[in-house]
Design brief:
Blueprint lengths: L1 H13 L2 H31 L6 H12 L8 H30 L1
Helix pairs in contact: 2-3, 2-4
Length: 104
């Protein structure tokens, strides 16, 4: 019987806005941190006047800014991505719940 109570609690929790918001916030942070360094590298290659290869761009970033250079501009990206992720996933989940309620 205790496991049934846990299932009901977790089902109830999954229907709460704060749950969706928190999960989307975490997903946005993780996605931003993982994808930012390759994006910095891509931007460096595209914006260089000399045609740099990926390896040359990595060396240039490390020479100019060190390892933290791969994370320059991360804060604005985190703010934008996490906000968009939170809003879109929370709305998506709320709409799904409303659709399920109308089907019953």
């Amino acid at each position: 019987m205790e496991s049934y109570g846990f299932v009901m609690l977790s089902h109830t929790l999954r229907n709460e806005v704060k749950y969706h918001f928190g999960c989307a916030l975490f997903a946005g942070i993780v996605a931003s941190i993982l994808t930012h360094p390759p994006d910095v590298l891509k931007t460096k290659v595209q914006c260089s006047e000399a045609k740099l290869t990926g390896v040359e761009a990595v060396r240039l970033i490390v020479k100019e800014s060190g390892f933290p250079g791969f994370f320059r501009g991360l804060v604005p990206r985190l703010l934008r991505r996490t906000l968009l992720s939170c809003v879109s996933w929370t709305i998506y989940e709320r709409v799904n719940i409303l659709i399920e309620m109308t089907e019953d």
